[in-house]
What we know:
The chain contains 14 helices and eight strands. Helix 13 links the parallel strand 7 (276-280) and strand 8 (298-302). The strands form two sheets. It has a four-stranded parallel beta sheet, with helices on both faces. The chain has helices at 22-27, 29-42, 46-52, 55-58, 61-82, 97-104, 110-130, 143-157, 178-190, 211-221, 245-255, 262-271, 285-293, 305-314, and strands at residues 6-10, 90-93, 134-139, 161-168, 171-176, 195-198, 276-280, 298-302. With 315 residues, the protein is an alpha/beta fold.
Amino acid sequence: MDWTTVAFIFPGQGSQAIGMGKSVADAYPVARATFDEADAALQTDFSTMIFDGPEAALNDTYNTQAALFITGVATLRALQQELPEAVPAFTAGHSLGEFTALVSAGVISFGDALKLVRERGRLMREAGELNPGGMGAFIGLTVEQAQSICEAAAKETGGAIVIANDNCPGQVVISGNGEAVDRALELGKDAGAKRALRLALSVAAHSPLMASAAEAFKAELQQVSLSAPTHPIYGNVTAAPLPTPQAIVEELEAQIMAPVRWTESVQAMIADGAQTFVEIGAGDVLSGLVKRIDRSVNRVTVNDEASLKAFVQST
């Protein structure tokens, strides 16, 4: 494996599933210790909820964010214990996954990042209760079409609605007031979207409805110490490397409200030399997105004991 061409990518909300990380924790003591460390820090049997449910608890954004983050770090630690040379040349995370990427690049400790992630989830849930909204997805429309639809829906309903994620060509996520999202989905169908559907998310992430969360989170960021990354992290907001702690703070401050520029982030890593994308943590959503962005690059998913062992054996 030529590690100078490898990118590690980490998933965000939507990839969670009951039982994620369990086979890795059962097989690798370092992964089990990560879940135990999180349980102690959160002063609750958090890992049992991840492994056994209930699903409603896992899908509460307050819990989802921490659960995905813990699972990602645990899986990464197991992988790097088996392959100490597994240091990527590039890394990125989708929304919440950006915090896992920060840990992977030595920017922040697991404990400090867990505190931030937990508070981020709490603040976003609180903002969602204060300003209820939702998210939807278009399949088969361009970013430009989605933008025009959001503008039309906002004008018709008087609600806030924006593009939240540019995930890959033909897949755009929107976020905002519930009425505006519903109207936008109707307009998307009229515009020829292959699919236009509501997403099972409890908050309007990456939208103006998260303003209170974004403002409060700034204070939390001032409480932690960040280091320069050991390898480039490509930010969701800028779709470019974040070279300094200050650039990372600015990214994290903006990220709660700003759109996730995933297509551009992947394209930027490829332009800079990434040839293999290894998705680490839960699910395989990002691998599918990378395939749609550029079929010429290699994709690997490491999300359980079997896939981790297979990757180790293939290197």
